[in-house]
Amino acid sequence: MTEAIAYDVVVLGAGPVGENVADRARAGGLSVAVVESELVGGECSYWACMPSKALLRPVIARADARRVPGLRQAVQGPLDAQAVLDHRDSYTSHWKDDGQVRWVESIGADLYRGHGRLAGPRTVTVTADDGTVTTLTARHAVTVCTGTRAALPDVPGLAEVKPWTSRDATSSGTVPDRLIVVGGGVVATEMATAWQALGSRVTVLVRGDGLLGRMEPFAGELVADALREAGADIRTGVSVKAVERSGGIVTATLDDGSAVEAEEILFATGRAPRTDDIGLETVGLEPGSWLPVDDSLRVEGHDWLYAVGDSNHRALLTHQGKYQARIAGAAITARAQGVPLLETDRWGAHSATADHAAVPQVVFTDPEAASAGLTLAEAEAAGHRVRAVDQDIANVAGAGLYADGYTGKARMIVDLDREILLGVTFVGPGVGELIHSATIAIAGEVPIDRLWHAVPAYPTVSEVWLRLLEAYRG
């Protein structure tokens, strides 16, 4: 039995969230151990954010170029799919984590490779590939930063078919002739956009009545229109009842009695927490569960245990997880230093308030869909007295310069009692770069009268802010 190795903080998971917790704790003078069972850098670096955007960037750039007079004629041919895949591979460092390992070492944290499990309060065991077990103890905190995995539905034949999940969709080295995408959310729409442009004939199967159901309805409508124009077949209100693979062909049988065939099928039907085998039962928690936390990211009922990023189910987005990590790192450091009263009030240094009020998101489809804060339905459900203000982005001079036939829409949700913004949604080419201004306005609770004096540069697409404010003021 080897003696336990003590650290101030033990971090389970070396993705962007775990890395940021480690970085903040080290900056506060605490000793840190980081435990990782796969690649250092996590889902985002190898199977999510980076590879997906590397696949999508050529798609969006070509679409934008085709809308510019004098340029569209030069980009009429198909994408070089192999070049796009090679570009993707370079962004994942060919699924090698040497650079990320060097970064962990550079901040002074110790990396332990292997499967980490809680073994009681403040204790973590790490089982390496060769079976060696190392025991770590935490003086101040253990942070669960283990992220999520694809959640697959209970569909007959699914295990035998070996469907794509998000990992396969972002890492495939070949372009299937046909691809079925099951789901209507972010992963489904982005991967449908990418693989349709790379040469697949894509069929999207959506159980609900439209795409991007957690955004304003017009977002999904505009994205669906564009996917259909690109050649994708989108079917709403259908469910997959069974799947089978024969001779390299997958057949999906639908609840309406029809069937769809393809070389591959992607299930993008949700995420589940990777907390099923990390020893939660040893500290009185349910294995496989989401971990409820307070605004300092401390797990309810455990003064030493933190859940940061996807595992707490507050906002399944890399940037929000990194934000939470900065908050958690500051809170852990303050508590370790004996600070008697943390700043956990609204917008305090130790409070992840933005998770409730100002979460931004960009869907990198063509057109892009970007939002921050609440939708109209969410604001009304929360009991706010609100007004939605809509504008056609095509009416902005900068939009016409950006692209011929620019199609897009903007909406802001105004709290009528406080005259501040609760939410903003943009849909259109290039709008992803607009959303941070909305995030600032929401997080800063900038009064409408003050926003009137934030003059957008002419002629840019951001002039849509002026049009929204003019419409509100009348």
From TrEMBL:
Q: Which cofactor does it need?
A: FAD
The record describes how the cofactor is bound as: Binds 1 FAD per subunit.
- What are the cysteine partners in each disulfide bond? 44-49
Q: Which GO terms describe its molecular function?
A: dihydrolipoyl dehydrogenase (NADH) activity; flavin adenine dinucleotide binding
One protein family per Pfam: Pyr_redox_2
Swiss-Prot/TrEMBL keywords: FAD, Flavoprotein, NAD, Nucleotide-binding
Q: InterPro entries from the xrefs?
A: Class-I_Pyr_Nuc-Dis_Oxidored, FAD/NAD-bd_sf, FAD/NAD-binding_dom, FAD/NAD-linked_Rdtase_dimer_sf, Pyr_nuc-diS_OxRdtase, Pyr_nucl-diS_OxRdtase_dimer
Q: Where is the Pyridine nucleotide-disulphide oxidoreductase dimerisation domain?
A: 359-465
Which GO annotations describe the biological process of this protein? 2-oxoglutarate metabolic process
Q: Which Gene3D superfamilies match?
A: 3.30.390.30, FAD/NAD(P)-binding domain
FAD/NAD(P)-binding domain location is 7-320
Question: Which residues of this UniProt protein bind FAD?
Answer: 53, 116, 310
UniProt-annotated binding residues for NAD(+):
183-190, 270
Q: Which family does it belong to?
A: Belongs to the class-I pyridine nucleotide-disulfide oxidoreductase family.
- Kindly provide the name given to this protein in its UniProt entry: NAD(P)/FAD-dependent oxidoreductase
Tell me what organism the protein belongs to: Streptomyces xanthii
